[in-house]
Amino acid sequence: MAELINVGAFAPDFEAPDQNGKIIHLSDFRGRVVVLYFYPRDNTPGCTKEACGFRDLHRDYEDENVVVLGVSVNSVDSHRKFAEKYGLNFTLISDSSKTIARAYGAMGASSAKRVTFIIGRDGKVLRVYPKVKASEHAEEVLQDLKTLSLI
User: Fold this and answer.
1) 12-53 pLDDT, tens per residue?
2) Quick check: is 47 catalytic?
3) Does the model's pTM come out above 0.85?
4) Which residue segments constitute the domains of the chain, with CATH numbers given?
């Protein structure tokens, strides 16, 4: 298993489709703070709680000019259905090749591990969350962005 990307390292750029099939590059968001969160699978209890947390706080993230990107190894179609079912209002990235998760050290045995990275405007990793409590994570990250002056 690859190790997680460290704070201070440049976040690896990637190219992958979102839930609508649009190709997304991390570099598209240079100049903005990005919350890049990896999760194991669409429609599972923990992953749904985590995604709904980011959905419910989306306006707060937007108000701070922060982009939220969720990444799992599920297909574009799975992501689209997941986003529609729960009214997710942020981008889900399909990493079906597992390339992104591997580049970040976030790949488990068969799915992405639950881990989050805060990436600064300059593309460097500002914070890593290797252990995530799904139901509280979106609030935790938002508070850290504010208290740590990352935004």
Assistant:
1) 999 999 999 999 999 999 999 999 999 999 999 999 999 999
2) yes
3) yes
4) 15-147 (3.40.30.10)
